[in-house]
Amino acid sequence: MYTPDEKGNVIPDFSHCGYMGGGVALPDVPVVMTMIPQVEGDDTKRIQSKIDDLSQKEMNASGFRGTLLFKKGIYRISRTLEVRASGIVLRGEGDNEDETVLVAAGKEKITLINVAGHDGRAREVHGTRQIITDEYIPVGKRKFSVTDASGFMIGDQIIVHRPSTLEWIESIGMNHIRSKKPGVIQWRPGKYDLKFDRVIVAINGNEITIDAPMGSSFDRKYGGGWIYRYKYLERIEQVGIEHLRGVSEFDENKKDHRRQGEFIDENHSWNFVVFSQIKNAWAKQVTSVHFGYSCVTVGPDSKWITVQDSQCLDPVSQITGSRRYSFPIQGQLSLVLRCYTRRGRHDYVLHSRVAGPNAFVYCIADMAHSDTGPHHRWSVATLFDNVVVNGNAINVQDRQDSGTGHGWAGAQKVLWNCEAESFVIQRPPTAQNYAIGCIGKKKDGRYKRENGYWESHGKKVTPRSLYFKQLEDRLGADALNLVNQ
What we know:
Pectate Lyase C-like, mainly beta, 20-stranded parallel beta sheet, single chain, seven-stranded antiparallel beta sheet
């Protein structure tokens, strides 16, 4: 049952998160090229040459060029491998120590595998902007009306644009973040807009229905919103990274003498895999070891990404800000499923102004050095579903002057059957956050704020997983089998 609040807001349907909009099996793309490890030397050039050759092949009817298979063994890589074309899969023969291992050599903070399009951000199509006429669109809704829908068609890709007006910023108190330290940035109008990337699935007069729910309310008194068609000239799609282990070399003499087993060298590789300017992509069964920042980053302008059955192990860096973000999300409608981390900081985390929805499902963090949750500046609509943080917290709160003015970290966050040492769940003005079936100590947070919505604290609820129940309700039981392959 989705019981609305006094304004009609409900918990959104998160089942639209993941590859191809959720509920779709990751494809098994045939091998067309093979890499064999060499005895010694730098493999960067010959691997990049293979990727470039594969990028020139024709795509098949399914949108794939084929898989580049890395046979078992060790590959030494000194520079970033770039995947800049659609339809490419990089696959190893397993992510264990004795299977396919990509060694990030050298002393630069590189990304080992960078998957990205060429063409910046989405560009508004001139003359297509239409004002949303509803006084209020609740969270979770997929329908709204515009001044004139006659210029739109079913299948159009649109941005649903929520502005960040002075009135809204003042209402949540982010124009007067209190701090005695220098460098704190007060939130400014126009800098905190949310842009929801959607597809039109129905038009009835001037009423438009989109494919996935809104992760934020739209309120006329705070500026309402508008829509427009967009062009993304070279955003790539249908790229997969599978069955690979990445290991970053580092200086083992640089030990953290305050913490047993920790190393603090920072002159080495930073990310294993980064997706940006891409849609419908995946990382499956990849393991990173010793990278300073992340295993897989879902970066800006990414949509419908699945990261599953992957591990971020024993990162090497100082234990401080901007490090050890094991599985960070900056895109939208993405799914992190059955992943594991060890010795991270912010393991399952959102960056600023993330439009959502996004979902972390059945994920575990061990030996966590800091909390999981939205990190800063109003990301919206994230599900933490059966997320377990051993030794630390899951927090959704006003962080005020943390960093350079993190303020309200997130809104419309749903914690479902999660476990942690402690929880801070606060309610921001104009929004809500939820903790349902969560086990762990309930805390007030660094700054006293109204508590979010708590239900069944200390006792898990049925259904066990909100994501999988929503997926079943939307697509039927067969979709569960496809996602669990």
